[in-house]
Amino acid sequence: MSVFSLLRARTPADFADWFRPGGEYLLRVADGMGFHTGDLAGFIDEAETAMRAGRTGEDVAPAVNRLVAADLYADAAFGLPFLEWTPVWYELPLTAPVAYADWRLRRVADQYARTIDHLSVPRFSRPKDVISHGRPAIESVSGFADRFAFADAILHLEWFDYVAGECGIGVPPELIAETRSQTVGYYVGDLALEDLDPTVRRFQYLLFTDDEWVRDTDARYGLDSSLLALWVRVCRRERERFGGDRPSSAN
């Protein structure tokens, strides 16, 4: 089954298997960094149950509404900016289906956001937003896999920062800023892996466990997608780089 079969998803129940890996990713990274997560694990379970039952809005606890809405809005905001970091031959054929999928995600997210007093909508970086030595940093990164990894390193940091913030997980702003700065420095070649602050390196190590997120999504929908397999390979490679000699049980 092609990854494009996901374009048939329309209802909260259809997206329950999409939401769950993202929720677990949020929890895994936050726990791994020692951030206080409170009842997040329980909220993830409640959210999946509610989505499968088609319950939204007033029929769902406020914290669960916020979690689902933030997660899906972040996913919806991720796709098109990410494609701009990739070569034209990769970007062009995926732009229309990704835009449609993003619209579908937002429509479901809207159902959970409508009873929330305030929820921001994220905007993630395009290549022109990340500058190094006076020009877009991506121009200093060669090779498809490295550009793909660089894009993910920036955008999954922004994804986590947004969703964690909306869910009340306290992430120090200075950690986000330093991780972004050192990540750019690493990918453009100004910093070696050994130059990275250990906390930054661990943060990216955990963020690159999105290979598990992608693999779980693929398995849940029975896709066996070569497109998602590429994500898994690149993310796993980067996780191993940032993890160094850390045991796999640290995931």
From TrEMBL:
Pfam families: DUF8116. It comes from the Archaea. This is DUF8116 domain-containing protein. Residues 1-243 form the DUF8116 domain. It comes from Halobellus clavatus.
